[in-house]
Specification:
The chain has helices at 3-29, 254-266, 453-485; strands spanning 39-45, 49-53, 59-62, 66-73, 80-82, 88-92, 96-100, 117-120, 123-124, 126-127, 133-134, 140-145, 157-158, 166-167, 174-182, 202-209, 215-226, 229-235, 273-277, 283-285, 291-293, 305-310, 325-327, 333-335, 353-355, 360-366, 372-379, 384-389, 394-404, 412-415, 418-420, 429-432, 440-443, 445-447. It is α+β, with helices and mostly antiparallel strands and 489 residues long. The longest helix has 33 residues, at 453-485.
């Protein structure tokens, strides 16, 4: 064969080992790039030439150089490093974040347009001026908006936190009270007057909220009427209540106003609640129905507000009517009257008791809250984004979407830590974190580059030596050609 063919073999090696060195250089350059996936160069022989047949009838073949077989991705997971930003996310396991482009990144040949969808493992997201969670290149993280019941519906969409900046107020409908009523308190025969503390024995205060989120302080008064029997009343400041069937200029006491509201809303007079205890101080009868309030802060179109005061699960044959109410819809609460039957499983001491000890408020809880403002976020391992609000409300806002592919090695790298779908990669499969083959999402952490620097330097040395050896082939072949040309002298 021609001596020049040896030179071309060496030349092909110089070209392809130069490409391999470029791959190594790119890996090392991105050793600190978030979620970078290193590449590996593989080679193949090319242009095998048969120059004869040996005596054993086997072909005599000569290779004519080296070719670049493939530059493959190493999609193994990098290590996870902790950060101090809640929207720094990493995926522990398989999967990619789905992002939608709204800005150009990379070169003009691979620019991302507003209609492009791409995939990334780099989870260093931040909120932009529009309230969206975006990558450093401005691509918007995709997910599902969650309903009130936490369910996902419809297509994925931009994760936009501005739509959840406030939490709507919720009217109080239930107050749970736990008390110790002093068993040694003498029976009080005075006529109850909310403005005269001597007509009741003990009091505690609870703050409730109307439908607009306005707060109102209610006082719960307790009066011992017989052995082991207490009456309780709820009083509110007159200025907090709307006059229902009284003249606008008529002065009303707190209890009169509540009586008016109950008459207007329920058609019955105000009735004090009753708590009855057994000889062991256990609550044996509670049986109370909701009290209706027309708070002055309510929208004029809003219905009267019912609040149920629950003192615990009563023990005995008298039952516990606070267990006998139902929620008819998200907007309407309806309550049963209460049945005179025993509630199985109640201990009578789970909240309110009567003991020979000082009066004490043991527990006080309620639903309802004022308008709240988004203070912080929390992101669970299954990809749900929770909002924590200044009013104490906490709710799931979004479900982050993860994507997997049948052949993730065939994804196309387009720069800016982005991958694009290809025909060989297969269709993207959307899902929630920790479902199917998808990994868990870790907040306050970022995936690091998976480049092994020590392995890259070893590969660099072998590529360098191969390059040097093939450069000698070119030099020696050139000398041989020079000797050949000098034969004519």
């Amino acid at each position: 064969m021609s001596i020049t063919q040896a030179m071309y073999s060496g030349s092909s090696a110089l070209t392809n080992y130069g490409n391999a060195m470029t791959v190594i250089g790119n890996n090392l350059a991105n050793a600190n790039t978030t979620a970078f996936k290193g590449s590996r160069t593989t080679f193949e022989d090319v242009l095998i030439q048969t120059v004869g047949i040996s005596g054993t009838r086997s072909a005599t073949q000569i290779g004519t150089g080296v070719g670049l077989s493939a530059i493959g991705q190493d999609m193994n997971q990098g290590s996870l490093n902790g950060t101090t930003n809640v929207t720094d996310l990493s995926i522990d396991g398989r999967g990619f974040f789905q992002v939608r482009g709204n800005a150009s990144v990379g070169s003009t040949e691979t620019a991302v347009t507003s209609s492009d969808t791409y995939y990334t493992r780099a989870g260093d997201f931040k909120k932009n001026s529009a309230g969206q969670l975006v990558t450093n290149a401005g691509l918007v993280l995709q997910g599902w908006k969650l309903g009130e019941d936490g369910s996902t519906t419809g297509q994925t969409q931009d994760i936009d936190m501005d739509v959840f900046q406030t939490s709507s107020p919720q009217a109080t409908t239930r107050v749970e009270v736990g008390m110790n009523l002093d068993a040694d308190t003498p029976i009080n025969t005075a006529t109850y007057d909310p403005d005269n503390p001597s007509t009741y024995d003990h009091a505690t205060t609870v703050r409730v909220y109307d439908s607009l989120g306005n707060g109102h302080n209610l006082e719960v008064h307790f009066k011992k009427t017989a052995d082991n029997t207490w009456a309780w009343h709820v009083a509110a400041p007159t200025e907090d209540l709307v006059e229902a069937d009284q003249a606008a200029d008529q002065s009303l006491t707190a209890v009169d106003q509540i009586t008016t509201n109950v008459k207007a809303a329920a058609g019955t007079g105000y009735t004090a609640g009753t708590l009855v205890f057994d000889n062991l101080g256990r609550l044996s009868q509670e049986g109370s129905t909701p009290i209706t309030f027309n708070f002055s802060g309510n929208d004029s179109t809003a219905a009267a507000q019912e609040i149920l005061f629950d003192f615990g699960g009563a023990l005995g044959t008298n039952g516990d009517s606070t267990n006998d109410f139902t929620k008819a819809s998200d907007a309407v609460l309806t309550y049963g009257i209460g049945t005179e039957v025993a509630d199985e499983g109640n201990s009578g001491v789970n909240r309110t008791v009567q003991r020979a000890d000082d009066f004490a408020t043991l527990s006080l809880d309620k639903n309802g809250f004022p308008t709240g403002y988004l203070e912080s976020l929390a992101i669970s391992q299954d990809g749900k984004i929770y909002g924590n609000y200044s009013n104490g409300d906490n709710k799931a806002l979004y479900q982050i979407a993860l994507v997997d592919f049948d052949n993730q090695l065939a994804l196309e790298q387009i720069g800016a830590n982005l991958f694009a779908e290809t025909h060989l990669s297969g269709e993207p499969r959307l899902g929630q974190a920790q479902s199917g083959s998808l990994g868990a999402i870790k907040s306050y952490s970022l995936e690091q580059s998976n480049v092994d620097m020590s392995a890259e330097f070893v590969t660099m040395i072998t590529v360098q030596r191969a390059f040097q050896a093939n450069s000698r082939i070119v030099t020696v072949t050139d000398g041989m050609l020079e000797e050949l040309i000098s034969l004519k002298r």
